[in-house]
Amino acid sequence: MTREARALLADLRAREGARLDRLVAVSLVAALAEGAGLLLLVPVLASASEAGRGALPDWLPALPGTGTLLLLFLLVMTLRALLVEWRGRLRTRLAQGYPAGLREAVADALLRIGWREAELLGPARLQRLLQHDVTRSATAAAYVEQVIVTAFIIGVQGAIALFLSPALTLTAVALALASMAVGLPFLRASQRAAVGLTTLSGLSVDEAHRLRAGLKAALAEGRTSAFLDRYAARLAAERDAYVAIDDGQIRAATVAQLVAAASLVALLYAGLFLFDLAPALLILLVILFARLYAPLRALLDAWQGIAVNAPGFAELSALLAQASAAPAPVPLSGDAPADWRRLEASGLVAGIADGIATAPVDLALERGSWTALVAPSGTGKSLVLDTIAGLVPPLGGSITLDGQLVDLTRHDGWAAGLAYVGQDDLLLGDTPRAMLGLDAGAPDARVDALLDALGLSALRSRFGPALDRPLGEHGATLSGGERQRLALARALLRRPRLLILDEATAALDLEAEAALVANIRRMAPDLTALMVSHRPQSQALADRIVTLNRQV
Structural domain tally of the chain? Predict the structure, then answer.
């Protein structure tokens, strides 16, 4: 078993242990019930033969009549049918519950590893984790369930066959092993084709994201064929890998069917002429061996399916392990906002690593003041904002609140008193009501006043009095300026102590921006703001300007 398969099994056990235990128990009892029903066929078949009781094995005790035996068979198989239904319900809940739990675990992991590491994942890789890798992991988990079910069926029915005729059963086992040995090279070839499938699928997803991101420019410049050629090449490589996997499985199945047909002939010959079995026993054994063929095929398919799909859990496992080793996240809401009047950063160095860091910067934020951070592109203004927001710790320097040295990534109440608005903020909700309702308990009168102040009073006529009509995908029904105004409204409804704006008004014209800032300052005179903007007119709206020099 591969390392990825072992990690997947451990994760499945940790998340769905109770359901797995029930599945094991129900599968065992269902297999035993089926085995008991098959055993009841021995006297029934014997009594139906011309030899009658003389055709029964010597070890079989005196049994009731055929009618009673048939009734018992019906009752046992009814019980088995009910157990199989229960087993199916358990498998359905496992099949739906495990991938949902994995996706929730990925979301929780993103919160635990922090913004710096989460941002490095990128949208394409994150989508691959949540969709492709989770789907493959769930498929592998379904094959694990299949192993559990088929193993009990094979074990119980194989034990019955061994009890009825050890010699013929051992012959059948030898033939089955020969069949597996013949088909093994084809399965191995299929597994080798699956090794690079995760990488190929990731490349095709990444290329799809690039196609979407560059679509407008490609259409305008007539470069669509180049985009499509690259995407088609990625898809072709992924398709060829899947075809190679399926070809190996098909060849293995064909060989197995041919060997099974030859094995059946060999077993009938051995039972009739070598082991001199009673007709009733031989018929039942043939039924057993025929019924075991499908579970054996399912077991081989499950083994192959686990080998092919378990590698999809590798990146998920790495992310979950990284999150498990990370410190517990600071709650983002629910605690009282921190009360402070002056934040001071001295020699602050913000960044992701020593090679990606800002020059040292000094800044002070006073209660009710607006500060603009100014620097050329690429000097790390957003890194400074992320550090002040407490998303990442500083690489150097110090930060104090009212003279007390603090770690903003873990400071009590810091997140509760902060609102962050970026230039391309995705809307956190599918309707204006859902987005603005992020801050629970805001009265409608206050929402109306805020919408008026931010120039969004027309939203009620477009999205209904309750603001509950869909915004469209990524806010497609809104203009860029409306999206930014709505993001600001969401932030201000939090009643923040500190408002961080990263090009948050870039989609507005200068006059509209000036009016909006004036309205915000009038409505929240004690609000402190730290803003980044490349427009000198926007910077002039601040009380003070701090310049971030380029790192040398």
Answer: 2
Going by C-beta distance under 8 Å and a sequence separation of 6 or more, which residues neighbour residue 340? 367, 401, 402, 497
Host domain of residue 446: 342-547
Burial class, 61, CB count within 10 angstroms (exposed 0-12 / middle 13-18 / buried 19+): exposed
Q: In this structure, what DSSP letter does residue 359 have?
A: P
Q: Phi and psi dihedrals of 422, rounded to 5?
A: -100, 175
Tokens matching residue 37:
């029903």
Element (H, E) at 149: helix 134-164
d(CA 302, CA 521): 64
* Residue whose pair of structure tokens reads 């499950």 in the numeric block: 302
Residue 151 domain flag: yes
pTM value is: 0.69
Which residues partner with 351 through β-bridges? 357
If you count DSSP H runs as helices and E runs as strands, how many of each does the chain have, helices first? 16, 11
Question: How do 370-374 and 351-353 pair as beta strands?
Answer: unpaired
Could you list the mean pLDDT of each consecutive 10-residue stretch along the chain, which spans 552 residues? Answer: 86 93 94 87 65 52 74 91 94 92 88 77 78 90 93 90 86 80 70 66 69 61 69 80 76 76 82 79 80 82 84 89 75 69 93 74 94 86 90 90 91 89 70 68 72 85 80 74 87 91 89 92 94 91 88 47
Residues 318 and 400 in one domain: no
Reduced to 3 states (helix: H, G, I; strand: E, B; else coil), residue 446 is helix
Query: Distance between CA 32 and CA 38 in Å, rounded?
Result: 10
- Residue 253: which H helix or E strand, with range? helix 224-269
Q: Which residues contact 302 (CB under 8 A, 6 or more apart)?
A: 143, 144, 146, 147, 150
**For residues 30 and 87, what is the distance between their CA atoms, to the nearest angstrom?**
8
Structure tokens that stand for 66 in this block: 């055929």
Shared-domain flag, residues 390 and 499 = yes
What tens digit of pLDDT does each residue of 527-539 get?
A: 999 999 888 999 9
Confirm whether 51 is domain-assigned.
yes
Shared domain for 351 and 450, answered yes or no, is yes
From the number of C-beta atoms within 10 Å of its C-beta (0-12, 13-18, 19+), residue 442 rates as: middle
